[in-house]
Write a structure and sequence with these properties.
Elements (H helix, E strand, L loop, with lengths): L1 H19 L18 H5 L6 H10 L4 H14 L7 H16 L4 H18 L2 H18 L2 H17 L3 H17 L3 H18 L2 H16 L5 H18 L2 H17 L3 H11 L6 H17 L3 H15 L5 H18 L2 H17 L2 H101 L3 H19 L3 H7 L6 H9 L5 H10 L5 H8 L3 H14 L9 H6 L3
Helix pairs in contact: 1-9, 1-11, 1-13, 1-17, 3-4, 4-5, 5-6, 6-7, 7-8, 7-9, 8-9, 8-19, 9-10, 10-11, 11-12, 12-13, 13-14, 13-15, 14-15, 15-16, 15-17, 16-17, 17-18, 19-20, 24-25
Length: 572
């Protein structure tokens, strides 16, 4: 019983894979990457027999079996390195036939790999992703779970990038199958939940059916919750009847029979088996039916009938590539022959079992899957490290460029500022020198005028003629008056900015300024104090203060805290 229970668990995984793989939901890939193939280009390919091609094309719709034979002959003649969309389309069509009709999965894998190479060479990413998914499902059927994981993950990356929800869900379901078979229950549950959630969101009835089946098998495996599994299977059967899909209805019934046999309820299994037999259509379904029939007889102790049923199952399974199913049959067959005392037959069944098991031992599957997972993780880590390194290099380069530009701008600004400072300092030095010279000149002029007035006064005392005395006195008064008047004309000598563009803009804004006010603005723009202006202009401090007050009024600064120097500096 223990050996049979193991085979039942194995068969559950087979049911899960057979039901969940969506190959029956998808047609062959369209011809080429963008339309009907160019016959002239196709005939130019080495080894392309256009007569065989025409026979394949003409029989493709009405006699598909014959068309596939012509397709096989055509592909055998064409150079394997030839790149043409029509060659890929023929390979896809033949691969679908091998997969769905004659169950030759190894040949289907070789054909899909050939079309994958062509699509990659042509640069058709959508075809590449779809073909990788097909290869993942085929490798899953063959038990090559490391290849399944790799192809499904690569396809999923493209579908997620393109937001192709339907194809993403198919990949989730396939990845859940891989991890469930290899006892990675946490990841399997995660992918199955994603699949179920996506099927609910999109309202996909067939997807919901698959999700229910996955949940049922999940609960039934290792007897997690048999009652819950049966409720889920019952709901799946109801949904199948609504969809009038006998293929899925057969699989659901088989899962329910398996549930009854695994819990030692052969009578319930027998009543279901009577309903299932008419639903078996192809060799896979007939093989599964007789396998379950053999299990039923084994539970009943009817070992001879069990052997007969299992031999029929093996006969059907050997018509295709169903090695795992054959292993399940051989496991139960070994136990049945042992009960009958036919140890030679039991030994032969065991030898056949391990002959298949040697080619695909569970430990080998785990090892390859673990290696593939680690390689994929390492690849993702390397890709992420490369992206981070590139981001760091880009950021570093950009930062260095920004720093260089900033330093260059700072240097240019500094040079310009230094030039302006030097120019201003030179102007100030020049103005100070001019002002000092002018002060000396003015001092000398004052001394000369005072000396002349003194000498004229003494001369006037010696003159007796009244008319001449009055004239000398008038000359002295004129000299005193000239010495007290503001020397605005001299100011122009040490205020060269009086005619600059700055004052031109000031006069455009305030054309009513008098000449004296304009000259006062020139002195104020030098940030001279009232006392300094008084000394230069030879006016009293009070007069300069009054003049400044009038100027503030004209500029609208009467009640403003802004100084005249600050106001005038705006025009610099």
């Amino acid at each position: 019983m223990k050996g049979f229970r193991y085979s039942v668990v194995l068969l559950v995984a087979v049911h899960l894979a057979a039901l969940a793989l969506p190959s029956c939901r998808r047609g062959a890939l369209p011809l080429g990457c963008g339309g009907v193939a160019d016959t002239a280009l196709l005939s130019a390919l080495p080894g392309a027999d256009m007569t065989i091609w025409s026979l394949y094309r003409d029989r493709r719709d009405d006699d598909r079996s014959a068309a596939m034979e012509y397709a096989r002959i055509f592909l055998r003649g064409v150079d394997s390195s030839a790149v043409h969309p029509a060659v890929a389309a023929v390979a896809d069509s033949l691969a679908e036939w091998c997969e769905e009709k004659i169950f030759r999965y190894s040949e289907a894998i070789r054909l899909r790999e050939r079309s994958l190479r062509i699509y990659e060479a042509l640069g058709c990413p959508d075809r590449v992703a779809a073909t990788r998914y097909r290869l993942a499902s085929l490798n899953c059927r063959k038990g090559f779970y490391d290849r399944t994981l790799r192809y499904a993950t690569e396809a999923l990356e493209y579908f997620e990038a393109e937001a192709d929800t339907a194809q993403m869900l198919e990949c989730y379901n396939l990845l859940g199958i891989v991890h469930e078979y290899c006892r990675d229950h946490d990841r399997a549950s995660l992918y199955f939940r994603k699949y179920a959630a996506g099927a609910r969101e999109t309202g996909d009835s067939l997807g919901l059916l698959m999700a229910l089946n996955n949940a049922a098998v999940w609960e039934n495996n290792d007897a997690r919750d048999t009652l819950k599994a049966r409720r889920l299977i019952g709901e799946s059967i109801r949904l199948c009847r609504e969809l009038t899909d006998t293929t899925y209805l057969f699989s659901m019934y088989m899962n329910l029979v398996n549930s009854y046999l695994s819990t030692y309820q052969p009578n319930e299994a027998a009543s279901l088996l009577a309903q299932i037999e008419p639903l078996a259509r192809d060799v896979r379904q007939k093989g599964l039916y007789w396998y379950q029939r053999g299990g039923y007889h084994f539970y009943r102790g009817e070992y001879a009938q069990s052997v007969e049923a299992l031999d029929k199952a093996i006969g059907y399974f050997r018509q295709g590539e169903f090695e795992r199913n054959v292993m399940g049959c051989l496991s139960v067959l070994h136990a049945a022959y042992s009960r009958l005392g036919r140890y030679d037959k039991a030994y032969a069944a065991m030898v056949d079992y391990y002959a298949l098991d040697d080619a695909r031992s569970r430990e080998d599957v785990y090892l390859k899957l673990f290696k593939t997972q680690n390689e994929m993780i390492l690849h993702r880590q390397q890709a992420e490290w490369t992206r981070r390194r590139n981001r760091v290099l880009f950021a570093g380069t950009a930062a260095a460029f920004v720093v260089v530009v900033a330093l260059l701008l700072f240097y240019l600004r500094y040079r310009r500022h230094r030039y302006e400072v030097d120019r201003r300092e030179h102007e100030l030095r020049t103005q100070r020198e001019l002002m000092e010279v002018k002060r000396m000149q003015h001092y000398q002029t004052e001394r000369l005028v005072a000396t002349v007035i003194e000498r004229l006064g003494k001369l006037n005392l010696r003159v007796r003629e009244q008319g001449l005395r009055r004239e000398i006195a008038a000359i002295c008064n004129d000299l005193r008056s000239a010495n007290d008047e503001p020397l605005w004309r001299d100011v122009e000598t040490f205020a060269p900015e009086f005619g600059s563009d700055n004052f031109a803009r000031l006069l455009r804004d305030y054309p009513n300024l008098t000449v004296n006010e304009r000259r006062l603005c020139a002195l104020l723009n030098k940030n001279l104090t009232t006392k300094e202006i008084s000394m230069i202009t030879k006016q009293s401090v009070h007069s300069i203060t009054i003049a400044r007050s009038r100027l503030r009024g004209k500029f609208g600064l009467t009640n403003s805290p802004i100084s005249l120097y600050e106001f005038l500096s705006r025009y610099n």
